[in-house]
């Protein structure tokens, strides 16, 4: 299989889907990624930034991911 732009987009979609379905209580708290600390002093750790990214993807990208997944499924069904 050749590496194409479509394959890269599909891989990014799969990663976003994986982030979107992470369960906060069962998965994230087990690894100490409970809730982001919202401090505005400029000393955000990498862990806080990762937690903020996960929560942002779960909150903002939920509806667009549903629509994009439907488009990709239809595209795969039509073109194979």
TrEMBL record:
Pfam family, one: Yos1
Record family assignment: Belongs to the YOS1 family.
Ranges that cross the membrane: 6-23, 53-79
Purpose: Regulator of endoplasmic reticulum secretion that acts as a key determinant of brain size. Required for secretion of extracellular matrix proteins. Required for correct brain development by depositing sufficient extracellular matrix proteins for tissue integrity and the proliferation of neural progenitors. Acts as a regulator of the unfolded protein response (UPR).
Protein name: Immediate early response 3-interacting protein 1
Main localization, broad class: membrane
Species lineage: Eukaryota, Metazoa, Ecdysozoa, Nematoda, Chromadorea
InterPro entries per record: Yos1
Keywords assigned by UniProt, alphabetized: Membrane, Protein transport, Transmembrane, Transmembrane helix, Transport
Gene Ontology cellular component annotations, sorted alphabetically: COPII-coated ER to Golgi transport vesicle; endoplasmic reticulum membrane; Golgi membrane
